[in-house]
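Standup notes
- DV: blocked on the single-chain target, sequence here:
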Amino acid sequence: MSSHGYETGRLNLPFVGISTFGKRPFVDDWSSIDADVAILGAPFDFGTQWRSGARFGPRAVREASTLFSFGHAGAYDHEDDRVYLGADVTMVDIGDADIIHTDTTQSHANIEKGVRSILAADALPVVIGGDHSVNIPCINAFDGQEPIHILQIDAHLDFVDERHGVRFGHGNPMRRAAEKDYVSGLTQVGIRNVSSTAKEGYDDARKMGSDILSVRQARDLGPKAVADRIPEDARVYVTLDIDAFCPSIAPGTGTPSHGGFLYYDVLELLQAVARRNDIVGFDLVEVAPDYDPTGSTAILAAQISLNFLGFIFDARRAGA
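- DV (later): unblocked, structure below
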C-alpha cells in the first residue's frame, strides 16, 4: 500500500508492460471475446500508391495508447463533466489479423474474419490499420446485418472503381462500400485538394448516394450541422483516415494533404455523431509512424480513438 493509502498493487505506469491498446486485456481466442469493445490490428499496406509503412500503424497506435492508461477509473472530462470509459465499459485487444505478404485477397479475408468474430460476440469492432483498403473487409463483415451508413473522415474520396485492374487498393474502399446493398449512404468529410479520385468518381459517388464536404465546407457548417446531414435513424460506421488531419499535426502518413482538420474539428464531429446516431463500428487507418519521428501522429490516433469510444458509450448509457 502507498504511504497515503490510496492504492494497492502495482503502479503500472504507461511505459511499463506490454503495449496492448489502452493496456487492456489481450484475447488470443477469437471465439471467446466477451467485452463491449474489441480492438483488431490490420497491419496491411499493400494497397498504397506512394509511401508505404502503415503496416506499422497498429503497433505504433497501441504503444501511443498506453499514454492514456493511468489507472482504471475512467477519464474525467471537466468540460463535459463526464467520466468516460469507466469500469462499466469493457475493452479487449484481440491482436492482429494475419497478413500474407503480397496476397491482398487472403490478408483481407483474415481481417474480415476478425471483424466477424467481434460482431458475433456483440462487441463494437475497432480496427487499426493499415492502409485504407482494410476498410473493405471491415464493411464486408457487416453483410446480413441491418443497413449501415458510412461516415468517412478523410482527405481523399477513395471512390476509384478500377485502375489497371486494381479494385481493392486504398483508393477503392468507398466505391466498394457504396456497391453494398446494406450500405444505405455515405457522408464523406474533409475531402480536399488533388484527390485520389477523378471527376467521374465524384459524379458516381453523388449518384450512388454520397454527401461530400471539404474541410472548409465542414468548418462553415460546424460539427453539429455536419452530423445533422446523416439520417437520424442510421446505424453509423465511421472510417477515419489520419490524413484527414493537417500534416502539421499528423505528418506520419503515406499521402499527406495540407489544409486538413485540426484536432477539435474532428473530435467535435465525432462527439456530435455519437450523441445522435448508433455507432456500430470504427476503423482508423493510414498511420505510417516512420514518417513522424516525434510519435505525435500515433498519439493523435490513440487519443481520438479513445475519446470517440468514450463518447459512444456515454451516449449509450444516456440512451439506456
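- Follow-up: DSSP finds nine helices and ten strands in the chain.
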